[in-house]
Amino acid sequence: MQHQQPNLLYIHSDQHNPYVTGCYGDNLVQTPNLDKLAEEGIVFENVYCPSPICVPSRMSMLSGRFPYENEVWTNSHILNSGIPTFAHAMGAAGYNPVLIGRMHALGPDQLHGYTERLVGDHGPNHPGGRGVDHGELSGTAGPARVSLQKSGAGQSAYQVHDEDVTVATVDYLNRLGVQKRAGILAEPFSISVGFMLPHQPFVARKEDYQIYDGRMTMPENHENFSEKLHPYIQWWREKCGIKEVSDDEILRARTAYWALVTRMDIMIGQIITALNENDLNENTIILYSSDHGEQIGEHGLWWKQTFYEHSVKVPAILSWRGNLPEGVRCNRVISSLDLNATMLDALGTLPLPNSRGRSILSLFNGDDAQWEDIAFSEFCTDDGCYHRMIRKGEWKLNYYHRQPSQLFNLSDDPDELDDKANDPDCQDILEELTEKVLDGWDPEKIALQMQAKREDTKILGNWARKTTPPDQYRWNLLPEMDYLD
Question: Low-confidence residues of the chain, pLDDT below 50?
């Protein structure tokens, strides 16, 4: 049955560096399913996340608003349920938006516009709720040296989570297929799939790890720790214990990361196979992206939490066969918020009224001359970091409140090794981008807002610890799921 409104399959991973994908130029990694999706659609080469950390990025992807507009800057902040999301917009247009897997929203609202959720997150719904026991891999899920020390072959519970997500998604598609074959599939579907991979722990099952063991390369641009580093980068490396990292740790962690990307690709392939085998691929939009990147040792850094390209840039592959071009690469500067607006535009819903997103479809209907190559990202922490990035055209400015800015020309210096902030010939562009990055974004105001939120969170955390409210949606992570061989 042909529907006038299209279907949506939106797959969102966690911490996937786009450069570790075959269709983005990596000749080592095995990602045949994402590469095939790229052949059937559009690969966007310059997409920037709203924040290089999970919750702020994800909540902005839901709302279409910048983190400072959501007032969600850290992984302990709660998105106001009164803010409409793209799931609300889909529901208002007649869709039944279903979420399977990760969303990483804190607070009592674990749907944020979704009408059905089949697999939850592994963490507590409430600040102060029952935490997670990673067993043998305790501490490896955060930004700490232990994630490099305890790396290699074994099993990450996050992979087990994603396997459950994959099974649930395939089952859902199979049930839709039954309805279609019976002639009772009455409306188009909207499925959002949330993966944990390839987020650390840097631990992968032996069968995947062995694909890259002995073949892994060192980072292309390692930076030794020294006083020449930017003050924030110095502080961050000291804080996380990565002033110096051994070659063995680097190779083990990178080997596991490549293996986790491959395993995620296999699971994506299983989902797309179910879509095709149930004849549900006609008039279906497929979008793959991630919440932020992973630095995998580049610049001497790991995880995310910076504005370097490996951390702040995300993959984005969009396929809508018969409606969008195939095998195309787009190098325009795009925000992840634009992906939100694009999905709503393609589905024919009303746009979110306060969204900052712009529909990418305009790039392929003859209006590309009107597109402004600009994107923002921000990173604010409870220990005094108030940072914001702007990418405009070939230039990128990393603004650090009360610290020196960094300025890079990505056309001349794609590896971000030549900071132009003190170059006399670049002061005009430095001034222009600084003015833009501070337009509407007040770090002093944000500091006060975050201080108030810390006080609120104390009450919320104590409430959860004392009253032990049930988790509405919670995937049961068990300590025995995490181990090293």
Answer: 1-3
201: closest CA among 260, 144, 140?
140
Q: What is the per-residue DSSP string for 57-79?
A: HHHHHHHSS-HHHHT--STT---
Q: What's the CATH code, domain 7-369+461-484?
A: 3.40.720.10
For strands 374-380 and 152-155, give the pairing: unpaired
Query: In angstroms, rounded to a whole number, what is the distance separating the alpha carbons of residues 459 and 457?
Result: 5
pLDDT value, residue 3 = 45
Q: Up-side HSE of residue 465: CA atoms within 13 Å toward CB?
A: 9
Long-range (24+ apart) CB contacts under 8 A made by 249-252 are: 249/148, 249/149, 249/151, 250/148, 250/218, 250/219, 250/297, 251/216, 251/218, 252/148, 252/151, 252/152, 252/202
Q: Please tell me the distance from the alpha carbon of residue 255 to that of residue 212, in angstroms, as a whole number.
A: 6
Neighbours of 311 (CB within 10 A): 27
Q: Note whether 481 and 138 are within 8 A (CB).
A: no
Within 72-205, where are the H helices?
86-92, 146-149, 157-181
The domain spans of the chain are: 7-369+461-484
pTM confidence score: 0.96
Crossing angle of the two packed helices 54-63 and 336-347, in degrees rounded to 10: 30
pLDDT of residue 307: 98
CB atoms within 10 A of CB 176: 19
Angle between helices 247-277 and 32-39 (to 10 degrees): 50
In the three-class reduction of DSSP (H, G, I as helix; E, B as strand; rest coil), residue 101 is classed as strand
As a whole number of angstroms, the distance between CA 463 and CA 285 comes to: 42
Residue with tokens 């507009």: 69
pLDDT value at residue 186: 81
Residue 360 neighbours by CB under 8 Å, 6+ apart: 44, 318, 330, 334, 338, 339, 341, 342
Q: What is the pLDDT of residue 1?
A: 32
